[in-house]
Specification:
Blueprint (H helix, E strand, L loop, with lengths): L1 H26 L6 E7 L6 H21 L3 E7 L5 H7 L9 E4 L3 E3 L5 H8 L1
Parallel strand pairs: 1-2
Antiparallel strand pairs: 1-3, 3-4
């Protein structure tokens, strides 16, 4: 229970980080930093979903290693039922998780390679 509570606390902080990056992009129109928000289910017993999360995690790690400070990577668990997160996600047509939201515009639900994600960044 303590680990789940701690994880939810961090997901709340990550959600507020995402909100603040959106506000910053509105103010600073020439901002060249990309935001990639990775929404996933944390408490799952489905082995396929756990494997998918691991693959997404590796792809995003490779992308972050390649671009460094040019990308803000924000992983957030959807199953923590964070009201602020749910409010934001209503703006996207998301049918399944995990999903990437790139630069607050593109929702990518299907597993992609680093190269496919890079195309959306450019």
């Amino acid at each position: 229970d303590k680990i789940d509570a701690q994880h939810k606390k961090y997901d709340i902080m990550r959600t507020f980080l995402w909100i603040n990056t959106m506000k910053t992009k509105e103010i600073c129109k020439n901002n060249s930093v990309h935001t990639i928000v990775y929404i996933y289910n944390f408490n799952t017993d489905d082995l396929t979903e756990k494997a998918t999360n691991s693959v997404w995690s590796k792809i995003l790690e490779d992308l972050k290693n390649k671009y460094g400070d040019e990308i803000i990577l924000i992983p957030i668990a959807d199953d923590n039922k964070i009201i602020a997160l749910n409010s934001i996600l209503e703006n996207y047509e998301i049918s399944e998780y995990p999903v990437l939201i790139i630069d607050d515009e593109y929702a990518v639900e299907e597993l992609s390679s680093v190269e496919e994600i890079e195309k959306l960044l450019n």
